[in-house]
Specification:
The protein has helices spanning 10-13, 60-74, 106-113, 118-137, 189-193, 200-215, 228-234, 240-243, 249-258, 270-281, 283-287, 289-299, 321-345, and strands at 22-29, 33-40, 45-52, 84-89, 94-99, 103-105, 140-141, 150-153, 158-160, 167-168. With 369 residues, it is an alpha+beta fold. It folds into two domains: 10-99, Phosphorylase Kinase, domain 1 (2-Layer Sandwich); 103-299, Transferase(Phosphotransferase) domain 1 (Transferase(Phosphotransferase), domain 1, Orthogonal Bundle). Helix 4 runs antiparallel to helix 6 and helix 4 (118-137) packs antiparallel against helix 10. It is globular and about 55 Å long. 33% of the residues are buried. Mean pLDDT is 79; it is low at 1-8, 11-15, 173-180, 309-324 and 349-369.
Length: 369
């Protein structure tokens, strides 16, 4: 989905939510839906409302795909997957209420910095792989794993988003033979060819994500007269370490294993990929990926919350604290100087002690007569 400046229509057209949401703002629009951010005052939280475009309500296949996305996500509860709160359909409109994830997309990071440090790449992919593995365990294939669908939260968490083309392994009826579904440059050879899809398609997409984070470039692009699809089908790409020599050989091996043209030569399952990533990171960093990611984001100033923060202005004196302190010291100095001058006027110099400059002590009166 791409960002849009389109005027929000959610609060006026979604009658069943009217009055329940405030601060409604459209944040993205795509071929199937509009995505809004809104606040639920009753629960004191921000949510995402993904609304199917009205003109598509009359398309049974599109409507069923939208229903499937909601039902699939409703069955998934994992820390690395965006949560679905509710699904509403009333004949005139259809929308999904989802978790709002404040943070930054991996695609935005790559655009800003060019490529990410290898251990950060491994930490991010580890989180995504855990989410994908959970989906596979629930008989779901994401089919659209890419950097723009991976979000890093303000707590350093990794969240996999956008399940618009998620597919149930046991029911591939909505994807006809020869039908290609997905994003160009982020497709497996099976998707390009329209062949039956297995969970290993997501393994290929995870390899694309790791490659792009490590090098700052997509592995499959038009080049030398070859189309993106040709290069994907043949799995032709420049080895990562030729793009960035700082990449550890272990991570290049993971990329190579994921991006095999033949699915049978890829990882047997995402769990095997997870094992290799944890071995590469080491037990300590594998157990604290959130801290690792958040530290990097903070140090590079790459994480800017998208929900604006409005601090309360406190009225106070117009001068700076240091100026006020200086003024107080000056007044005290004047008072001390004035007091000393008065005292000096009442004590002549002849009464001073030759050694100290202070007044000589007066002799004690004797009680003897």
């Amino acid at each position: 989905m791409s960002s849009s400046s389109e005027k929000p229509t959610l609060d006026s057209s979604t009658a069943s939510l009217r009055g329940e949401l405030i601060e409604v703002k459209i944040i993205a629009t795509g071929g199937m839906s509009q995505v809004f951010r809104a606040r639920q005052p009753a629960l004191d939280r921000y949510i995402v409302v993904k609304k199917l475009k009205e003109e598509l309500l009359a398309h049974p296949e599109t409507l069923e795909r939208f229903r499937r996305e909601a039902k699939a996500l409703a069955s998934v509860l994992h820390q690395n997957v965006a949560h679905v709160y509710d699904f509403v359909e009333n004949g005139r409109e259809s929308y999904i209420l989802m978790e709002y994830i404040d943070g930054v997309d991996v695609s935005q990071l790559v655009e800003k910095v060019g490529h990410l440090p290898p251990e950060i790449c491994a930490a991010i992919l580890l989180g995504v792989a855990k989410g994908v593995s959970y989906l596979h365990a629930h008989h779901l294939i994401h089919r659209d794993v890419k950097p723009s669908n991976i979000r890093l939260t303000t707590r350093g968490e990794v969240k996999l988003m956008d399940f618009g083309i998620v597919m149930n392994i046991e029911n591939q009826g909505l994807t006809r033979p020869g039908m290609m579904v997905g994003s160009p440059s982020y497709l497996s050879p099976e998707q390009v060819l329209g062949d039956p899809i297995s969970p290993k398609a997501d393994v290929f997409l995870l390899g694309i994500c790791l490659y792009e984070m490590l090098t700052g470039s997509r592995p499959f692009k038009e080049e030398g007269g070859e189309t993106v699809f040709q290069r994907i089908r043949e799995s032709k790409y420049v080895p990562p370490r030729e793009m960035n020599s700082a990449i550890p050989p272990a991570l290049e091996r993971i990329v190579r294993k994921c991006l095999q043209k033949n699915p049978d030569k890829r990882y047997e399952g995402v769990k095997n990929l997870i094992v290799d990533l944890e071995h590469t990171l080491g037990p300590e960093k594998s157990s604290h990926t959130e801290d690792l990611i958040l530290k990097y984001l903070d140090e590079e100033a790459l994480l800017v919350p998208s929900i604006p923060y409005h601090p309360i202005e406190i009225q106070g004196p117009s001068w700076k604290p240091w100026f006020a302190a200086a003024a107080v010291m000056a007044v005290m100095g004047l008072l001390v100087g004035f007091g000393a001058g008065v005292w000096w006027a009442n004590h002549p110099a002849s009464g001073e002690s030759a050694q100290t400059g202070f007044p000589a002590p007066k002799p004690l009166k004797s009680n003897n007569k």
